[in-house]
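request received
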Amino acid sequence: EAGVTQSPTHLIKTRGQQVTLRCSPISGHTSVYWYQQALGLGLQFLLWYDEGEERNRGNFPPRFSGRQFPNYSSELNVNALELEDSALYLCASSSDWPGQGYGYTFGSGTRLTVV
Amino acid sequence: GQNIDQPTEMTATEGAIVQINCTYQTSGFNGLFWYQQHAGEAPTFLSYNVLDGLEEKGRFSSFLSRSKGYSYLLLKELQMKDSASYLCAPEVNTNAGKSTFGDGTTLTVKP
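response:
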């Protein structure tokens, strides 16, 4: 069974540009979560999608957005990139809603560097 | 919101036992996850506690006290490969999303 796949693995962008990151969940998983992890820091919750709908978003500005497709894959878009957006962006999928204890399976992440 | 507190760094010797503590304050608490994250890699699931008490899984055990908002991860017979960050993640049973992660405890295992 394929795990959670993310693309690209690494990306370098210039301040002010836009970027799209992609995630394919484990087959059968309908929930996709996006997290940002700046170097040396913890995971910050960005977005949660389930069944094609945005269920919740973290404390990030509107230039962070995304969507989930009918096949449950997801995109994270970041507009007007700033230097502090440089981070590892992790996607995770799960087969259930909160409360079931199945946990996340994470992808390997996309390392975004903004220069 | 959620408030999660765990030590930033710990150091231990190969073969020893180490306990990583986590305290949390959260509403709608359902259970608690521990994840392991090696440098530059994605976190991987270690354990999940929903009932009070100790859950043992090989060299790793995890404890939960719901009334105290407290958990710990116990690592026995430490190996060099256990050097990693350990993330405490309370699970809330609301539509706010599954888990908020603590900043992690970076464990360094020395020979």
